[in-house]
Amino acid sequence: MEYSIYKMELIENLDLAIISLETQLSRVTLSGANPQLFSNLKITYYDEQMLIGDLSSITIPEAQQLIIKPFDKETVKEIYKTIEKQNYKISMVDEGHQIRIIFPILTTEKRQESVKQLSSISESAKVKIRNARQSVLKMIKLDKELSDDMHKHYQDQVQIEIDLYNGIIDKKVINKKEQLLQL
To answer: In 10 A of CB 123, how many CB atoms?
Structure first.
C-alpha cells in the first residue's frame, strides 16, 4: 500500500488529538469570563444531544461575568445542572430565564494551579499522538507487500509527522502558559 494512505489515517487521528487539546486548553480559565467553557457542553433537548452554544446566546456583560440565555426557557434548569456537574470554580445564579455566571478573579495561586493543569493536558494529547503512531505503525508492519527498506522508510516518515505534531502541542501549551502568567 502507498504511504499516502497511511499518512491520511495518521493525520486524521493527529488532528483529532490537536482538536481535543485545543478544547481542553480553552477550558483552562484565564482572568475573565470564557464562553468556550460552556458553548461545547451538551444537554438533552427533545431527546437529542445538543450543544449549549447552539441552544442559547452567551454574552459577556462584564469582564468577570457571563450570561447564558437559552432560546427556550425550559432548558435553563438542564443547562444549569450540566454546568454544575463540570465542577468549575465559578458562581452561578439561575435567574429563571437565563443563567448568570460569575468568574472569580484569578489570583497568583489560581494561576499556578492552572499552569499545573497544562502539563496533564499536554500529556493527554501526547498519549493520543503516541496511540495514533502505534496504530499506523502496526498497519505498516502487517503490510506484506512492503520490503524491509520500505517498512523502515514509512516508519521514518511517520516519526517526522509525530515530531511535527508534538511540536504543535508544545507551542500551544507554552502559549497558554504565557497567557496565564501575563494576566
So the answer is: 12
pTM listed for this prediction: 0.68
Closest CA to 177 of 119, 103, 128, 126: 119
166: amino acid identity, one letter: N
End-to-end CA distance of the chain: 51
Cα–Cα distances (Å) from 153 to 3, 8, 140, 141, 148, in that order, read 9, 16, 10, 12, 9
From residue 128, alpha-carbon distances to 27, 135, 168, 169 in Å are 19, 11, 13, 11
Cell of 156: 521514518
CB 175 within 8 A of CB 98: no
The span from the CA of 115 to the CA of 96, in Å, is 35
Q: What is the pLDDT along the chain (183 residues), one digit of tens a residue?
A: 788 899 999 999 999 999 999 888 877 765 567 777 788 888 888 888 988 889 899 888 887 888 999 998 888 999 988 888 887 778 888 998 999 998 877 777 777 888 888 999 999 999 999 999 999 999 999 999 989 999 999 999 999 999 999 999 999 999 988 888 775
Contact between 1 and 10 under an 8 Å Cβ cutoff? The reply is no
